[in-house]
Amino acid sequence: MARSLGTWTLALDGSASAEKSLIGGKAWSLARMRELGLQVPPAFVVTTRACTEYLRQGAEPAELAAELAAGIAWLEAQTGRRFGGGSQPLLVSVRSGAAISMPGMMDTVLNLGIDDATEAALAAECGDPAFAKDTHRRFLELYATIVLRGTAPELDRAATPAQWREQIATAAGAMIPATAVEQLQAAVRAVFESWNSRRAKRYRQHNNIPDDIGTAVTVQAMVFGNLDAHSGTGVLFTRNPLDGSPAPYGEYLPRAQGEDVVSGKFTPKPLDEMNKTVPDALAGLLAAARVLEAEHGDVQDIEFTVQQSKLWLLQSRAAKRAAPAALRIAVDLVDEKRIDIATALTRVTGEQLAALMNPRLADSDNGGKPPLASGEAACPGVGIGVVVTDSDEAERRAAAGEDVVLARPTTSPEDLHGMIAAKAIITEQGGSTSHAAVVSRSLGRPCVVGCGENALSQLKGRIVTVCGKEGRVHEGALPVIKPDESSDPRLAQFMQWKRAADEQEERKGTP
Where is the Pyruvate phosphate dikinase AMP/ATP-binding domain (predicted)? Predict the structure, then answer.
């Protein structure tokens, strides 16, 4: 699975096993996919031990710089490309990856290694100067935000990279390092530091994740979904994460990179759209999805990129799922003889069981009255409260005992505290695999995304009822009813298993 490059780093070459606690979930999934013969860009990983050492000392271990160089040399040998120069430049992504999944909570830098010279080389190699310039701009914007911790200015696409760097230096109060090696070292430090960001701490607190396990950092050769019309990026769930139905579910954004999907600033297309431009990549993706679900015995959340019709897999992890999906998937996998009852009982949390018994709308159509807003259903459930458009305000008012609904243009990791405080979440932009959708399912918050421009101005200050199942936002506090366990055969079956297991445990504890 991995080969040591030193004390703190491992090459993900499939040569030896490595614990998820050491290399993190992202690197572990890359190594396992490689072992399964799936297409994965080469990568090496900086271990969680290096992170905890950095956070303890306030500086990276002395050997780490040399080990990063060794890792880059290994990537160069694997790809035939050169980092920081050459006619075929190597660009890399630098991504966080804790042993326990924390989707959207920590930092990622893409396209690292590009400068004016490598932009020109990339343009010459691909025959597309616009692609190379777009890739350069993307790197500068992410680096300014993640590593320099500044507010990245809106970069004028017609400007030159030198002008972009000047804009960033003025806005962030710091310069982007001149060499790719220095950029890489600073990016790794930034990912380490994101472990202790406000949002990451709040997520760990909410999900009872230990503070001392740290994050690994995966450094991976870039593949480019923004290259041409036969390139793109997306996310596939092997089953529907909203209701658990056993069919692939996901989205694809042509000529884009992964951050475009997650940010919610663009609305992706259904996966079937891939048949129009990259049918072989879609067929390969669906085949890989079947392999990965069978391998892990659970529904998978798969990130992928297509570059010039070739499929590359970037991650596979157990999918965050809404309560109805958790129930159906657990029961269905038992019926399919993929897992046993004891395992199924661990797949639905107490919080999800409680959510299944939460009130539902007495009349989902609200007597035929048109909703105030509608969009894509991203997490089922009903949430009632006053609409606020600022996460700090949502947290403050919720702490004072008020029920609030958080509405944002899109959400980012900086909105986590407001999302936790809210009864429901609404966004103007984004699809069902955006940050808002994924985190809402993780938190069990009803969510409607993609409600369109001006939704915030129309909703702010109103008391609304959000129906995450139908993708609607209704005016006022609508009547609700409490569901009956007997009305859902899967819930009745699951509760029968749970009661039997609880009785068995009680008998074990009886002298």
Answer: 21-59, 62-269
**pLDDT tens, position by position, 28-80:** 999 999 999 999 999 999 999 999 999 999 999 999 999 999 999 999 999 99
Q: Which of 310, 292, 307 is nearest to 236 (CA)?
A: 292
The boundaries of the domain holding residue 332 are 323-357+484-509
Place of tokens 């944002």: 408
Q: Rounded distance, CA 327 to CA 102, Å? A: 21
How far apart are the C-alpha atoms of 95 and 220, rounded to whole Å?
8
What's 488's domain CATH number? Answer: 1.10.189
Q: How far apart are CA 444 and CA 380, in angstroms?
A: 8
For residue 233, what is the enclosing H or E element? strand 232-237
408 DSSP β-pair partners: 427
Q: Are strands 249-254 and 300-307 parallel, antiparallel or unpaired?
A: unpaired
Q: Which residues does residue 424 pair with via DSSP β-bridges, in sequence order?
A: 405
* 126 and 205 belong to one structural domain: yes
- Nearest-angstrom CA–CA distance, 174 and 68: 24
Say if CB 25 and CB 98 are below 8 A apart.
yes
CATH code of the domain containing 156: 3.30.1490.20
Distances in whole angstroms, Cα of residue 144 to Cα of each of 32, 153, 155, 263, 475: 33, 9, 11, 16, 41
- Give the pair of three-digit tokens for residue 420: 């936790």
pLDDT single digits (tens) 253-312? 999 998 888 888 888 999 999 999 999 999 999 999 999 999 999 999 999 999 999 999
Q: In total, how many domains does the chain have?
A: 4
Specify which residues 9 forms β-bridges with. Answer: 46
Residue 114 contacts residue 197 (beta carbons within 8 Å): no
| CATH number for the domain that contains residue 233 | 3.30.470.20
If you count them, how many residues does the chain have?
Answer: 511
Task: Count the Cβ atoms, other than its own, within 10 Å of residue 136.
Answer: 24
**What CATH number is associated with residue 369?**
3.50.30.10
Listing DSSP states for 84-133 in one string gives T-SSSEE-EEEEEEESS--TTSS-EEEEET--HHHHHHHHHHHT-HHHHH
Question: Model's pTM, two decimal places?
Answer: 0.89
Helix (H), strand (E) at residue 329: helix 323-335
Kind and range of the H or E run holding 503: helix 489-509
CB atoms within 10 A of CB 293: 22
Where is the domain boundary, 167, 195, 222? 222
